[in-house]
Write a structure and sequence with these properties.
By secondary structure, the protein is of the alpha/beta class. The chain contains nine helices and ten strands. The protein folds into two domains: 4-85, 60s Ribosomal Protein L30, Chain: A (2-Layer Sandwich), CATH 3.30.1330.30; 97-242, Alpha/beta knot (3-Layer(aba) Sandwich). It has helices at 4-12, 16-22, 30-37, 65-71, 107-119, 137-143, 157-163, 201-204, 227-242, and strands spanning 24-28, 43-48, 60-62, 80-85, 97-101, 124-128, 151-155, 167-177, 188-192, 209-212. The chain has a six-stranded parallel sheet. Helix 5 (107-119) runs parallel beside helix 6 and helix 5 packs parallel to helix 9. The longest helix is centred in the last third of the chain and has 16 residues, at 227-242. The model has no long low-confidence stretch (mean pLDDT 95).
Length: 243
């Protein structure tokens, strides 16, 4: 059964303020929920239309589909909704390739970036403090469980880059072609800027050099690539040269 208090509480978790206040967030869908259960995240409560999918869980509650629709953030709920406790971030491993994101606004972009990062073996993602929250329901949905296995930190990105001894690599339309560059994964930070404005002038002053993805046609359209697509292309090329 879903109580009025459950509905009110779960709906409040759409907002970062209440996720932080209550130290928890929402995951929907059988596959993603199982991945979070198998990770270091602590399950608080699970609501299921079909409880047989998750056996031996004391904090699971069987509900009707019409009740699920009252608490789901999706237009077409996927039979299961879980509340998990937020996890503390781990120390950043500066010996590996780190992805740094400045002022990312779109939840779908961040979720896709997180999923791509896991595919290419990235362990740490650093986000500027004004980037969209990685526990936003739309980010969770787009990341498809990958958040459960990556370390995502929110910090003062400018300060972090200034004190870091790693090689700082920017991404822009005027950088050196990724296809003519030899980038190593060790002790490097790959920086991506805001979807509309790119990397800020403040961070450009800190970055050691820039990479770009060349346009393979004569006219200047489209003006740019989607940030999640750009990240996947650049990481794919870096890893190809290391393979």
């Amino acid at each position: 059964m879903v109580t009025k208090n459950d509905i009110k509480f779960i709906n409040s978790l759409k907002h970062k303020k209440f996720r932080d206040l209550n130290n928890c967030f929402i995951v929907e869908g059988k596959k993603s929920i199982k991945e979070f259960i198998d990770s270091e995240f602590k399950l608080i409560k699970l609501f299921s239309v079909n409880s047989s999918c998750f056996k031996e869980l004391a904090n699971q509650f069987q509900i009707e589909y019409n009740q699920l629709k009252k608490i789901s953030f999706l237009n077409n709920p996927d039979d299961h909704l879980a509340i998990f406790e937020l996890k503390k971030t781990k120390p950043i491993n500066n010996e590996n390739l780190i992805i740094a994101l400045e002022s990312i606004r779109d939840p779908g972009n961040l979720g896709t970036i997180i999923r791509s990062c896991e595919w290419f073996g990235i362990k740490d993602i650093i986000c500027s403090l004004d980037s969209v929250d990685c526990y936003n329901p739309k980010v969770i949905q787009a990341a498809m469980g990958s958040i459960s296995r990556l370390n995502i930190s929110y910090l003062n990105l400018g300060h972090y880059l200034k004190i870091s001894k790693s090689v700082k690599i920017g991404t822009s339309l005027i950088g050196k072609s990724i296809y003519k560059s030899n980038i190593k994964s060790e002790n490097s930070i790959l920086v991506f800027g805001n979807e509309a404005n790119g990397i800020s002038d403040e961070l450009f002053k800190i970055i050691d050099f820039n990479l770009s993805i060349p346009r393979f046609q004569k006219h200047n359209f489209p003006e740019s690539l989607n940030i999640a697509s750009s990240l996947a292309i650049i990481l794919g090329e870096i890893k190809r040269k290391e393979f």
